Amino acid sequence: MEEKIGKVIGVYGPVVDVQFDKAEALPGIYEILSVNTYDNKELILEVVEHRENNICRCIALGFTYGLQKGTLVTSKGTTLVVPSAEKLFGRVLNVLGKPIDGKGKIEVDSYIPIRKPLASSKFCIRKKTELKFEIMETGIKIIDLLFPLIKGSKTGILGGAALGKTILILEIIHNIIKKHRGACIFAGVGERIREGNELYYEFVRKELLNRSILMFGQMNESPGVRFESAHTAITLAETLRDKGEDVLFFVDNVFRFAQAGSELSALLGRIPSETGYQPTLTTEVSQFHERISSKERGSITSVEAVYVPADDLTDPAVVSIFSHLDSILVLSRVYVQRGLYPAINPLESSSGFLSPEVLDKAHYDIAQEVLRYFQRYNELRRIVSIIGKEELTREERIIFERARKLQNFLTQPFFTVELYTGREGKYVSLEDTLGGCERIISGRLDSVPEDKFYMIGSIEEVVS
Asked: Which of the residues 87, 178, 192, 439 is marked catalytic?
């Protein structure tokens, strides 16, 4: 096969134009090219557009510092590929599937392309009578009670800056891998290097690394890296799923994936949509989420952090993401200010699995009663802030106080922040969570002060 060789004719930040002599020599869309910078470091380019005069417009999967005009470029003859995931446990990778943990090279026999035609995706569609919902207990009270994590589902944790999205994801990883022993893939997409470093050492400290693969495309890297890192990570998850594994797939942060697409769209000169985002936003988010699917022998269960700019849940990128999610956990700044952690607002959040078809009757009834208390409390809180609690009727005061106790009871100390809070982490079984809520609702704990319920594990810590 004749080698395709071109030359750099323009560099516009992370966008590089490469010209070839003949139209027949043009590499295909998403094919990758190799070029060396002036200090002899290899830079990988990905073709995204064909332009007139045999020019390929490419995005750089790395830094373009030192890339000179006229430098020769060689086509690799393939799209971006990553190693098969079975031998990658315990390793930290970049978007190209290369190790960045200093533990040496990865010896693998097979490589998987990260871009797949949609027609190649085969979904397992079962009859309604055959559907079985397997609940994965997280040990986090408010999630297990109101937003159950189902194997093969997609859960989004939505919130603005500093509301605890990453901490909540880390706690779910810690509790589920310890209990369920599933394979874990963590994709750090466009977040801080510091968080990635802390995550790695947290995995080492909690002995979670031997069943995990970490993949990072961080905030300081080019938009091409941040965009493709999501595809690299889901390719690794698909590889394990196809081998019959149940995969836990964590993304922090999927909004940064959409944001990187917006940056690339602007750099490529595309006219934005009337919302200000790229015109291909919905397509890009859909193509990524459609790959998070399950088969008869193997599943992918995803938990995705979604940054919400300026706490605006109507942001077009956020809306396009949560339309693909089964459960949405919305973190509230008001809850953070009141010290209620995890800061999940149960009235703004929702779950497609809070249903009698999925949960047993006792669980469903208690969850609905808890939500009714929270809804009534939300109405009474506004009244109390104006006229005081003393003006409420006796029945209203009982509802108000029980709802406060339920709010406090659903807070919880986390294992992953023990070093910072000084509180020992608590894992609370679903049975203990339901039992505690039932006792509060029934009035058996009306005489106990509400502060006794704050940051505890099971209800036995109050009554003992």
From this structure: 192
Residue 407: φ, ψ to 5°: -60, -45
**Residue 331 DSSP symbol:** B
Q: 4, 57, 154, 165: which is the annotated catalytic residue?
A: 165
What are the structure tokens assigned to 131, written together? 């559907």
Place of tokens 């998403």: 30
Active-site residue, 191 included: yes
Of 31, 191, 202, 304, catalytic: 191
Residue range 308-350, pLDDT digits in tens = 999 999 999 999 998 999 999 999 999 999 999 999 999 999 9
Place of tokens 């608590």: 426
Q: For residue 413, give the 3-state DSSP assignment.
A: coil
Instruction: List CB contacts of 455: < 8 A, sequence separation 6 or more.
Output: 341, 408, 411, 412, 413, 423
Tokens representing 452 are: 């006794």
> Alpha carbon 81 to chain centroid distance?
22
| Backbone Cα Rg of the chain | 25
Global pTM value: 0.92
Tell me if residue 192 is catalytic: yes
Please identify which residue in the block is written with the tokens 């020769």: 72
Residue 389 has pLDDT above 70, yes or no: yes
Tell me the mean pLDDT in the region 404-418. 94
CA-to-CA dists, residue 206 to 103, 174, 193, angstroms: 19, 8, 20
Contact between residue 288 and residue 228 where contact means Cβ atoms under 8 Å apart: no
Residues in the chain: 464
Residues 326 and 155 sit within 8 Å (Cβ to Cβ) = yes
